[in-house]
Amino acid sequence: MQIMPNRMDRGYLKYQEEFETKALAVLRSGRYVLGPEVEAFEKEFAAYVGADYCVGLASGLDALWLAFRILGIGAGDEVLVQANTYIASVMGITINGATPVFVEPDEYYNIDVEQLEGRITERTKAILVVHLYGQASCMGPVMDLCRKYGLKLVEDCAQSHGACYDGRTTGTFGDIGCFSFYPSKNLGAFGDGGAIVTNDEKIAADMKMYRNYGSEKRYYNKVVGANSRLDELQAGLLRVRLQHMDEITGEHRRLASRYQKELCNERFALPRVREQADSVWHQYVIRCRERERLTAYLSEHGIGSIIHYPIPPHLSEAYQYLGYGRGSFPLAEEYADTVLSLPLYSGMTEEEQSFVIDRLNRFC
Ligand SMILES: *Cc1c(COP(=O)(O)O)cnc(C)c1O
Known about the structure:
Elements: H1 8-14, H2 16-29, H3 36-49, E1 53-57, H4 60-70, E2 78-82, H5 87-94, E3 99-103, E4 124-130, H6 140-149, E5 152-156, E6 164-165, E7 168-169, E8 176-180, E9 194-198, H7 201-210, E10 215-217, E11 220-221, H8 232-243, H9 245-262, E12 268-269, E13 277-278, E14 284-288, H10 291-300, H11 330-338, E15 339-342, H12 350-361
Parallel strand pairs: 2-3, 2-4, 4-5, 5-8
Antiparallel strand pairs: 1-9, 6-7, 6-13, 8-9, 10-11, 12-14, 14-15
The site of pyridoxal-5'-phosphate has 15 residues, from α4 and α5.
């Protein structure tokens, strides 16, 4: 049996007819950018998340950097962010000239809220919380600190569509929630896509201006914006997938809970589940000290796996200028050296998962 870490074709085949009907309808409509599909998707996605406004964008990275741009965070400002995130979170900060201040992760792979306050300086302007792998961060203390120090709160929800903390959906805690619809995400498009959600009417209006060359009125440009528009085809296809989101999330949860119950091998550690968090299991991430041997063993048996992520941002070549080295954030580095994401995707069969579980349990 050959098992890949992700099978995006399965997610397509599941709702193939609906996707194809929608794609044809959009192609025949003659409207391809900023039309009725985008408008409808924005309404539906805002309702899904429980926010007042949604603005469709071209990618998750655009959502992040435009969020900080609109909040007025740039050169000389510091933003707290967890050290074990995907590098796009950090780029969202640095594209604006602001400085990322890294904070070690907790045992759930989210930002360690115990260490947050100690990292706040006069220059701190915001906290970027990343709900990594689909599990919500601990939000109470984060919100308290934002109030206490007058900080903005941005959420990176690229991996947490529909995930909750204390019954509240991620993306609704902060000033702006940033989403990606990259094909491999839980709510994936068939190309690039992204969005922000907010309860602030002014932020939503600004975002609509920024995504379209800084213009509210055609050819009248108020600010230097970007071209970051979610297109009609992606929006239409996302609307189809969004209608099935409960089912898709349910699949992720079922697969994860079977791994949790049936994986049993002291050579690796299973992910920990935060009590107040209802994860959507974007990734199922184990940790293994003999990771190289484990991945070789798995691939011998036809099982693919991915490392999310092998190099923490502070050690990547792109961020050498920040001046960190090995040992700067030991826990983030340990995670980078030991994490491994197991196959988990919508449309994964019981037989496929049994095979993965069996091989993993027999690793010695
Ligand atoms: C995917 C991802 C992004 C970036 O999204 P794109 O749409 O690929 O630009 C940002 N942050 C996290 C945590 C992600 O997983």
